[in-house]
Design brief:
Layout: H1 4-9, H2 25-32, H3 36-43, H4 47-58, H5 61-77, H6 88-107, H7 163-169, H8 174-185, H9 190-196, H10 201-218, H11 224-229, H12 233-249, H13 252-256, E1 259-266, E2 273-275, H14 277-286, E3 295-302, E4 305-314, E5 319-331, E6 334-342, H15 347-350, E7 355-356
Parallel strand pairs: 1-6
Antiparallel strand pairs: 1-2, 3-4, 4-5, 5-6, 5-7
Helix pairs in contact: 2-3, 4-5, 4-6, 5-6, 7-10, 8-10, 9-10
């Protein structure tokens, strides 16, 4: 695998691949001559999907921002070595993947509370955030590309950012993570991936086999994409509205009626999490429904799933301030998992306001 210093030095494009789809030769020539505006036009159609790829690799919107910025800077510096033997898309994915692999090597994997220990039977009222853990984060659906963009890939674009999928990827070494994403999500061949990752086709196929075994054990079926296709829009709105209304009214019975028996609720960066209807009910009644104060909510979507931005009343500010983004995972028409990502920094990528009246 190429080291960080190799990425700037050796990012010539591999032979093969598709044509320079979506690019214009004049812009490519201008960009090679140092025209940064021409380079921006070349990469603009690919920015969203490259950003989503970086998120899948890294599990954090903020890390994806940094990785994409770094990758595009490397691509700009190395553009004179792009000879057009592969598509610009393939070449940029090579640069972005190598950039992400550098980050994975330096930082390790991101976690959810379930990765740290067993669930708690009763509410931990004064739970303290863990600041020394790299936590998984949510991803706004506005960053996702068209599911039809790579029809040969196994996973649809929204399936490939579902929380269970992203969490499972974090248990893979960087090379396995990259190989699986490039093959199953983006539709590159094993031979193309071998060139992109500076390894052999045999190594890529081996990495794919190992990655698939891990995902098969960790990613539940059916996917949320397929689950949501079985629920009409009115039903989905009713489920999400029921959840937000129960929270705002402090209505424990209404909330419990929406949950499966094996429901879980976690709140990174808080380490404790809850599994099963009794434990989740105890937490819900003792903490968000009675102890936190007044809530306001805005519905949104995250990771290809329904989500809610929560705002908690702050007396000093005289407003409801942004508090957490909860991603809902459904089984049928009930909520199986609630993952509440605490922190105001999560709101910016979603375009959500910082406060509500």
């Amino acid at each position: 695998m190429a080291e960080s210093s190799d990425v700037d030095r050796d990012i010539s494009d591999p032979a093969g691949g598709d044509a320079l789809e979506g690019t214009e030769e004049p812009d490519l020539a201008r960009a090679r001559d140092g025209d940064s505006d021409a380079f921006a036009r070349l990469v603009a159609p690919l920015r969203r999907e490259l950003h989503a790829h970086c998120y899948r690799m890294l599990g954090s919107t903020h890390d994806a921002d940094d990785a994409l910025q770094d990758a595009l800077l490397r691509a700009w510096r190395g553009l004179t070595r792009f000879e057009g033997r592969s598509s610009l898309r393939s070449w940029l994915y090579t640069v972005a993947t190598r950039t992400c692999l550098d980050t994975v090597e330096g930082r390790g994997r991101r976690a959810l509370p379930v990765d740290l220990g067993p669930s708690s039977d009763r509410a931990v009222v004064n739970d303290t955030p863990l600041t020394d853990v790299a936590w998984l984060g949510p991803y706004p659906d506005t960053g996702l590309g068209d599911d039809r963009a790579v029809p040969e890939a196994r996973y649809e674009q929204r399936e490939a950012v579902e929380l269970a999928f992203i969490a499972a990827l974090q248990h893979l070494p960087g090379n396995q993570r990259a190989a699986l994403l490039l093959f199953e999500v983006l539709g590159f061949s094993a031979a193309e991936i071998a060139t992109m990752m500076d390894t052999s086709t045999t190594s890529v196929n081996s990495a794919l086999a190992r990655a698939r075994r891990v995902l098969a054990a960790r990613v539940p079926e059916p996917s949320q994409r397929r689950t949501l296709r079985g629920i009409d829009d009115a039903q989905l709105r009713e489920i999400v509205s029921g959840f937000t209304t129960a929270l705002e009214r402090g209505d424990g019975e209404a909330l419990v009626a929406l949950l499966t028996e094996d429901v879980s609720w976690s709140m990174p960066p808080l380490p404790h999490w809850y599994q099963g209807i009794e434990a989740v009910t105890d937490f819900a009644v003792r903490v968000p429904l009675t102890s936190c104060g007044s809530w306001r909510n805005i519905t949104t979507t995250a990771n290809g799933q329904p989500a809610v931005g929560h705002y908690l009343w702050d007396e000093a500010a005289g407003a409801h301030l942004s508090w957490s983004v909860t991603v809902l995972t459904l089984r049928g028409t009930r909520i199986r998992d609630l993952t509440s990502f605490l922190g105001r920094d999560h709101f910016v990528p979603f375009g959500l306001p910082a406060s509500l009246p």
